Amino acid sequence: MENMVMLYKYQENAGAGFDEHIESILKRIEQMAVQGMEQSNGDTLKSSFMLTEVMFSIGLDQTQLKIISICISKLYHVIDQQMISLNADILALNNSLKQDQLQLTRENPLVGSIMQKIDIIGAFIKMMYRVFEKVTTKTSFLQAYYEFVASPHLASIFIRVFGIGIQIPNSPNNNSVIGITGLQILDNVINHLKTRSLECINYLLKKKDK
What we know:
Blueprint: H1 2-13, H2 18-38, H3 42-55, H4 61-99, H5 109-135, H6 142-149, H7 152-162, H8 184-209
């Protein structure tokens, strides 16, 4: 936080060394994301999301492009790894449910792990929505906006979110986009994630139509 105070001071006074300080801070945020990923620490990852979002408050288009290239690109990788791990958990849960559907409980470690990963992915999606709000407020931020619109990594994340689902043996709802497993707490986190992702997509498309 001390570095961020210094950063705003440099920006306000247009002092020399602004670019150097901002790049240093972005690298530290990037390192925090890597640390959170390596240690499987959800709180550290969420902190890196929060700090990345804060950096987009700096009203310079070139600065926002730096944030995308240094921080957001790393967060794409973080979420990709979360998705891979989440899919492995879901596959393991699906296989166990074929043997015993009574294993679909909040106390099941696999269910807990799935919910933790969805929570992290959801925090990233919420951050992106708020970032979209920032970069679509001024025409001078169009470069950053188009970076997001054209990003195959971001598109891949949204697409995979809609593929998240638990397969309940003999359930007619297995092909539904909406999660209907019967375990309400799990259904709620899955459906909330999908709803927030759809809101992000609509936000980008709405801006594009303008």
